[in-house]
Design brief:
heterodimer; A: about 70 residues; alpha+beta; Alpha-Beta Plaits; 4 strands; B: alpha+beta; Cytochrome p450; five-stranded mixed β-sheet; iron ion binding (chain B)
Chain lengths: ~70, ~400
């Protein structure tokens, strides 16, 4: 399974869920709190955290593209 | 004298104030969207579409067609809904512009940096509680001072002024007031905050108001700065105080769950999410439909106002495990809407979480024999305001 992560900085409202859910994948810019993507193709062990971040994001600013490795 | 009014969409059960009123569950089951009368000191009674289902609530709060809808009109008297600077009065790009001036102060990193200060404040209040002795009121000694001290420190508002700004915040959130009282109250709030803003203009302090003046002062009017300050001050202490009191009251009635919060540092984060979900103290402010629209197959007409019951939405979250009418601090956190949803989701939510995660375990560790000082059914709850709260919570140990 591969997972590609994209973020929409324009939509981001800096609620911080992504940073608390998946701190190795997301950070926030110091000057305005907007999401900063650390890893656009996180390893499988982080996938669940990343899905949680996308679920909790109140602005739908996290876009996930999942592809099954066997397909 | 007439009965004090509660807001229908945040109505609570008469015997258990943590539970939504029975009619909210009934509406949740009923097809279509009801129209209900909503009392408001500022707007007078108005009719609104009431959303009670979780999915409807989330969809509505993130739909740009449902707008906060209160455009500042300088010709009209100032009210909380006619106040520049208050983020809750803005939509779209205007809202984003203002919110982004404040978000750097509320990032996860910045809030982590505040933890030592929060711990110090909590310790000082535990000392004060101990000094007050058994029979002391948790609301007075603990729940109100902690978030008030934190927001004073963060914003740059003198703590000595608390009695007057807490009184004004209470009036501002009281549904059972007149429009005239609200206008007079806001004038007092503006006069107070206006003085603080003027001081920061002269010499910006090392705090949030100071840094907003320093970084964005040339893009903001005095009115906007005053509105920002008022919003942060009210939002920063009333809601978290309510959560602290409610958390203490609930955990004292559920000793096995209290033990989890006291003894397992790993479990505190999830426990706080559950308390937030279950208590849901604040309301989502009304929205207005900017055009005819359909929410999950249900019509809302242009110009209709829309209110959302966060309280009952949190009791039926699709996919969440277990019985959501029961408090269970060990449950996998359910994605609650206590902080709202969409672009207006609570700016200070990470700060609120940090305060709750520090204060609750510290209280139960310091006072292992803590118990309610009155019978459970005599705890004095406030159910007729925009923010649910506990008025008084005497404890013994």
């Amino acid at each position: 399974m591969t997972l590609k992560v994209e973020v929409d900085e324009q939509r981001c409202v800096s609620a911080g869920h992504c940073v608390t859910s998946a701190p190795d994948v997301f950070d926030q810019r110091d000057d305005d709190g907007v999401v900063h993507l650390l890893d656009g193709a996180p390893p499988e062990r982080r996938h669940e955290q990343v899905r949680e971040a996308a679920l909790l994001c109140p602005a739908a600013a996290i876009l996930l593209r999942e592809r099954d490795g066997s397909a | 004298m007439p009965e004090p009014k509660a807001l229908p969409f945040s109505a609570r059960d008469a015997t258990c104030p943590f539970d939504p009123a029975a009619e909210l569950y009934e509406l949740q089951e009923r097809e279509g969207l009801p129209r209900v009368p909503v009392p408001s000191p500022i707007m007078g009674e108005f009719e609104a579409v009431e959303l009670t289902r979780y999915t409807d609530a989330k969809d509505a709060m993130s739909d740009p067609r449902l707008q906060m809808g209160f455009v500042f009109d300088p010709e009209q008297p100032r009210t909380m809904m006619n106040q520049p600077g208050n983020l809750l009065n803005y939509n779209g790009a205007d809202h984003r512009r203002l919110r982004r001036m404040l978000t750097s102060a509320f990032t996860v990193k910045r809030i982590r940096g505040l933890l030592p200060k929060i711990e110090e404040i909590v310790d000082s209040r535990l000392d004060a509680l101990e000094a007050a002795g058994p029979g002391a009121d948790i609301v007075h000694e603990f729940s109100t001072p902690i978030p008030t001290l934190v927001i004073c420190e963060l914003l740059g508002v003198p703590y000595e002024d608390r009695e007057s700004f807490q009184r004004r915040a209470k009036i501002g959130l009281d549904v059972n007031t007149t429009r005239e009282e609200q206008i007079a109250n806001l004038a007092e709030m503006d006069a107070y905050m206006g003085r603080l803003v003027a001081e920061h203009r002269r010499s910006p302090g090392d705090n949030l108001l100071g840094s907003v003046v320093r970084d964005f002062g040339d893009q903001l009017t005095e009115d906007e700065l005053t509105g920002i300050g008022n919003m942060l001050l009210v939002a920063g202490h009333e809601t978290t105080a309510s959560m602290l009191s409610s958390g203490v009251a609930l955990l004292l009635q559920n000793p096995d769950q209290l033990a989890v919060v006291r003894d397992d540092p790993e479990a505190v984060g999830d426990a706080v999410e559950e308390l937030l979900r279950y208590c849901s103290p604040a309301i989502a402010l009304p929205r207005e439909a900017a055009e005819d629209m359909v929410v999950n197959g249900q019509w809302i007409e242009k110009g209709e106002r829309v209110v959302t019951s966060l309280l009952v939405a949190n009791r039926r979250i699709p996919g969440a495990e277990g019985d959501l009418d029961v408090l269970d601090v060990r449950r996998t956190p359910a994605p609650h809407v206590t902080f709202g949803y969409g672009p207006h989701q609570c700016l200070g939510q990470q700060l609120a979480r940090a305060e709750l995660r520090v204060a609750l375990p510290a209280l139960f560790k310091r006072f292992p024999t803590l118990a309610l000082g009155v019978p459970e059914d005599e705890v004095d709850y406030r159910t007729t305001a925009l923010v649910f709260a506990v008025n008084k919570l005497p404890v013994t140990w």
